[in-house]
Fold this sequence. Notes:
The protein is α+β, with helices and mostly antiparallel strands. 53% of the residues lie in helices and 6% in strands. Glutathione binds at residues 6, 9, 11, 46-49, 60-62.
Amino acid sequence: MKLYVYDHCPFCVRARMIFGLKNIAVEEIVLLNDDEATPVGLVGKKVVPILQKDDGSAMAESLDIVRYIDEHYGEKLLREEIRAELTEWMNDVGAYYNRLLMPRFIRLGLAEYATQSAVDYFVSKKTESIGDFAENLQKSPQYIEKLHNDLARLESLIKADNGANGALSLEDIVLFPMLRNLTCVKGVIFPPKVQAYITAMSQLSRVPLYSSRAL
Ligand SMILES: N[C@@H](CCC(=O)N[C@@H](CS)C(=O)NCC(=O)O)C(=O)O
């Protein structure tokens, strides 16, 4: 099987996680951010993640990929429940966190931005949603302060390192990718339980963090 991704894409991390958690072999292919032909050729639109099965057929939608792999390979691993409080937390943080993340993504040396045209494509498209990249970078301290308040709220929702709700569930598939991406932001201090959760989930899912290159 082949999994087409961008390294920074949280939806792609969801899909990468199920392969890591279940120890299933997959070839990860990082597309250039401005490569429209490959995804359109596979699923008819410019989107990742895309799973290409061994029979050549392709599927998009991160949670469909996660469920397909969980249900067809080995014993089912993930519980379905996602707590309403956690959904609310993700919606709150999701409303602003790209202002911290997107200006940093293009500076991390990620494969999807290996060419200038890939960087330009991303910046032009995402400036429409978050505004000017440089201005957002400058405003980092205010977003980090907001994030610290939100992380303090999250601390009380983390029940165990190896599953936010006490055991692996879809919660981890949607929450960990957000936290993993936030490890690229220098100056963010994760509360102890959240930090332990991030470290454990990275190891279990075999999705590396950005901590060592945070900026
Ligand atoms: N609902 C989709 C969303 C996937 C998605 O939005 N992927 C983004 C990358 S993070 C994408 O491919 N956007 C198109 C683009 O970058 O041009 C899923 O869960 O897989």
